[in-house]
Design a protein that fits this description.
Length: 386
């Protein structure tokens, strides 16, 4: 049974009620995130970044990054102990990343590699007239071999089966890119191995739901029929359309429904930064359903990892028993909240249990700033209806 709490936007505009789906403690659910390409995340701030010159920073901070790692941070911030991340790590930077995960109580399983974990640097210009608002510098990832990829698949399988013994539903979240050496069939092999193990262990694939957030080297996994939910941004969706021989110039909902049918998915969730978000699925009769969400205007401090935070809120709420629409709505609210925090999702605050039933809400940790996304539209694929 889903418990609902109404979260009211504190903005001076008319009150907007936001139905927040949550089961206290999310009992009976757990997530395993595959974060094959982690990173140490360094963020530098200065008034106006100027390429080709000497730039002096006003502030800097360093933590961990990587899509799977930020997903796990958000999930464990929302429900402590709910998500384990499986990852490749190496070198002193890998040790630093693991120490950061430990300090936040984020469970992780590590496959050691010879090369050092990469460092990603984000340069943020804070001046009102800054020409280059955000600049990303991403180091190459250390390569892995077949032994290491097999070890990561085996560790992911063990984590999922361990949760199957204890819980009713388990979510597998495949996040982001792979390091060199994995190959384009790595995610497909991982999904097949885990799904077969769950079926053999429990007699059914029903306890497992798989979400994919990525667009590179994912085509074999997408076309395998082993992915339930695809969560990407608009640019990634268009790149996937090209890979699937679809027209990338179509409308977002048209591409999403085409991918949904071609890859036998349950749902496609699409974000677009501060722009409208889309959720496409089908009703019981196979007719297309499209929902569009309008995000509020928020004071963005750092957008790093907000999409991963959105995915974590979405998936955790869905596995807790909420509907697709309500779950994605909740995830978008979490992502908006993270964008307002200094450091973005890399410094997303942690909620420590116990949480009082029916009082878990974003307003607990963002009582003065959080505005929430509005749902616009209903069961239609006609954009003119919005």
């Amino acid at each position: 049974m889903v418990e609902w709490a109404d979260v009211v936007s504190p903005s001076p505009s008319p009150k907007t009620l936001f139905p927040l789906p949550w089961r206290h403690g999310a009992s009976g659910t757990a997530l395993v995130a595959v974060g094959a390409n982690p990173a140490v995340q360094k963020t530098l701030k200065l008034p106006n970044f100027s390429p080709g010159t000497v730039n002096r920073c006003d502030s800097s901070c360093q933590g961990f990054g990587g899509k799977g790692q930020l997903f796990a941070r958000a999930a464990n911030g929302l429900c402590s102990g709910s998500c384990t991340v499986v990852q490749f790590v190496g070198g002193s930077s890998g040790e630093f990343l693991c120490q950061n995960l430990d300090s936040l109580g984020i469970p992780h399983r590590d496959i050691l590699v010879p090369g050092a974990t990469r460092t990603c640097t984000t340069i943020i210009s804070t001046g009102p007239d800054a020409e280059h608002r955000e600049t990303e510098v991403i180091e190459p990832s250390a390569p892995v071999d077949e032994t290491m990829t097999a070890a990561l698949i085996a560790e992911t399988r063990r984590c999922v089966l361990r949760q199957c013994d204890e819980l009713r539903r388990v979510g597998l979240a495949i996040q982001g890119t792979c390091p060199p050496g994995c190959g384009d069939t790595f995610y497909a092999s991982l999904c097949r191995d885990v799904r077969d193990a769950v079926v053999q262990h429990t007699g059914s694939a029903a306890p497992l739901t798989t979400l994919l957030d990525g667009y590179r080297d994912v085509l074999p996994a997408l076309q395998s029929g082993l992915i339930d939910i695809l969560k990407v941004n608009v640019q990634e969706l268009r790149k996937l359309a090209e890979q699937l021989a679809l027209d990338p110039a179509q409308g977002v909902q048209d591409i999403a429904h085409a991918v949904l049918g071609k890859c036998r998915l349950q749902a496609v969730a699409v974000t677009d930064g501060a722009g409208p978000a889309w959720l496409c699925s089908q009703d019981d009769g196979g007719l297309p359903l499209t929902f569009r969400f309008l995000l509020p205007a928020v004071e963005v401090d750092n957008a790093i990892g907000c999409g991963d935070t959105t995915g974590a809120g979405f998936f955790l709420a869905l596995l807790s028993g909420a509907s697709l629409r309500a779950s994605f709505r909740f995830g978008l609210a979490v992502g908006c909240a993270a964008a307002e925090v200094a450091g973005g999702a890399t410094t997303f605050p942690r909620i420590r249990p116990p949480l009082p039933p029916l009082h878990f809400a974003l307003l607990i940790f963002f009582p003065h700033r959080t505005k929430l996304p509005l749902f616009a539209g209903s069961k239609t694929t006609d954009p003119a209806a919005f």
